[in-house]
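Illustration 12: VWA domain-containing protein.
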Amino acid sequence: MRCASAPAVLEVDVKAHTCAHLLTLSALLAMGCHSPVDEAGSTVPDTCEATPPVVAPQKTDLLFVIDNSNSMQEEQQAIVTELPAFLAALKEGSGVAQEFRVGVITTSVYQRLTLGDGTDSIRSFPDQAGRLQPVKDEAGQPTAERFIESSDPLLLDKFQRLVAQGTSGSGQETPFEAVRLAVSSPLAEQPTAEGGNAGFLRDGARLMVVVVSDEEDCSSKLRPPPVSLGLDPSVDACSDNADKLTPVEEYYQDFQALRDSRGVSREVLWATIGPVALTDKRAELVKETVGDKTYVRNADCPTSYGPGFRQFALATEFDATRANLDSICKSDYRQTLIGIAGLATVAQSIDVVNLPDPRLALVNVTRADGSVQTCSVANGDLRYEPSGEDRSARLYFLGPCLRRVGDTKVEVKVLCAG
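Figure caption equivalent — predicted structure in token form:
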């Protein structure tokens, strides 16, 4: 009988799936095979441990970006109505405990308008422009609170009040620029007491952005903004002058480059309820005449006020399947928000502690139909990233073991040679 090398023996171990089956390994070792337990610096345990590895709660920082222009009252209320379903779906967690917090910003950063006499009027929104908006009390008065924890017993009530941002904001919606300002310096480091957003983004947490808007994005990093709106509703200045705006790809790269205070890459998710077609989510400019006025809309989206070319493009950058994109023109957003909650809860990595050696890790994922899929580093279904000085180790799901919406349980076990 030929002795296998340590990695090959471990591969057999992983396929065995239980400590009982590892008696085969013990027998091999008794016949003179080299044990990985005896390797210099080995972390492979020589006995079964009673304490299983711990899967830490999944941390997600949810940033809602609410269009507060004068056409958004009904849409805001429709979101408010379905927040109970959204939160319930979030808390189900796809098999992993969820620890989330929620903050809201608006799409208002600036508004440049060309008046009838040809002059430009530029208005800024310094109390918005990426700043987390204050949570209001029951009387509708702003408080010092800028975000809400998932453990807050008043989470739903506060969240509903926070989404209702009113309709006195900019008519030149800039969700991409608002998010950039919210998550970067100086706002990201400025204390909330001074109007900043410091403390909202946590180390080790994913960021999920949810944009809710009925118009095209008109974002630019330049000041004054290079595109000016006109008074003619049949012209969409932002689409017509898209080449003057900051490219969608540049914003995408900015968000992908985000890191936490430890320098660790931050996982960013993006979802949009925006001006795209009801039937197939396409972005296409059409014009509709109502009475004596003609309006620009997106095709198959009668309550939109512009085509969603840029909204469509950024959502696609984050998810080519566009499972993260839906139409603002839906009659209700219940299923849309439940779908977004599903995306928010399914991360393709988990923090693990008390894992002595990643080669011995087995992860059992219980699927929605009750079937259990077993994944391992040795078989290439998982990738392991070791812990750092101030961060937990992580397991990344790969290939057929990618996590799915509807998963009900994730369990980590350790094989051992004792």
